[in-house]
């Protein structure tokens, strides 16, 4: 079994290759972000790692943010969201709750309130169902600030929302008029 540190390190590396840089280990994601598990394990181990299927399953099962998912037959794996490489995750548009939250660093609030939330190098803006999650997300880059997003109003105006496998709400942008500080 993996130690906590080994689990964290493998999770971070999987985030890198399944969300941002598959070429780092010579894998190719399909159009929906999937890669065969056997291919991933072969490539990981070709670079001097000793990753077993059990270790991979452990990371997927224990990742607190549920960042990764296996296909139903467990033959493929992908990141649930957060890609900076072009993939079509296949999520159907959903009706969001009236309010969702976005955690950010205090240093970013002024710009966000002026320009809105932009996906930038990612495929979507990420929104949380609760303020605790938003605080954790915002705290990764400094003093956390939670923004309230009026997603019900956005939806009425035609903005699309998607719910990822790990329950993160996704949208293309959030204009400033739909944002307030929580």
UniProtKB/TrEMBL annotation:
Species for this entry: Mucilaginibacter celer
Protein known as: Probable RNA 2'-phosphotransferase
SUPFAM superfamilies, alphabetized: ADP-ribosylation
HAMAP family assigned: KptA
One term of GO molecular function: tRNA 2'-phosphotransferase activity
Annotated keywords: NAD, Transferase
EC number: 2.7.1.-
InterPro entries membership: Ptrans_KptA/Tpt1 (IPR002745), RNA_2'-PTrans_C (IPR042081), RNA_2'-PTrans_KptA (IPR022928), RNA_2'-PTrans_N (IPR042080)
Function: Removes the 2'-phosphate from RNA via an intermediate in which the phosphate is ADP-ribosylated by NAD followed by a presumed transesterification to release the RNA and generate ADP-ribose 1''-2''-cyclic phosphate (APPR>P). May function as an ADP-ribosylase.
Claim: Transferase is one of the keywords in the record: yes
């Amino acid at each position: 079994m993996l130690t906590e540190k080994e689990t964290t390190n493998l999770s971070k590396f999987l985030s890198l290759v399944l969300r941002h840089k598959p070429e780092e280990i010579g894998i190719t994601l399909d159009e929906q972000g999937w890669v065969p598990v056997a291919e991933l394990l072969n490539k990981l181990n070709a670079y001097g790692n000793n990753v077993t299927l059990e270790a991979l399953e452990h990371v997927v099962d224990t990742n607190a943010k549920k960042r990764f998912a296996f296909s139903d037959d467990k033959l493929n794996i992908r990141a649930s969201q957060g890609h900076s490489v072009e993939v079509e995750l296949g999520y159907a548009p959903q009706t969001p709750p009236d309010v969702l939250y976005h955690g950010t660093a205090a240093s970013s609030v002024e710009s966000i309130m002026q320009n809105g939330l932009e996906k930038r190098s990612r495929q979507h803006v990420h929104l949380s169902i609760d303020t605790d999650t938003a605080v954790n997300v915002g705290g990764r880059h400094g003093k956390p600030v939670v923004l309230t997003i009026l997603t019900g109003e956005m939806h009425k105006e035609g903005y699309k929302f998607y719910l990822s496998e790990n329950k993160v709400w996704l949208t293309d942008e959030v204009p400033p008029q739909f944002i307030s500080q929580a």
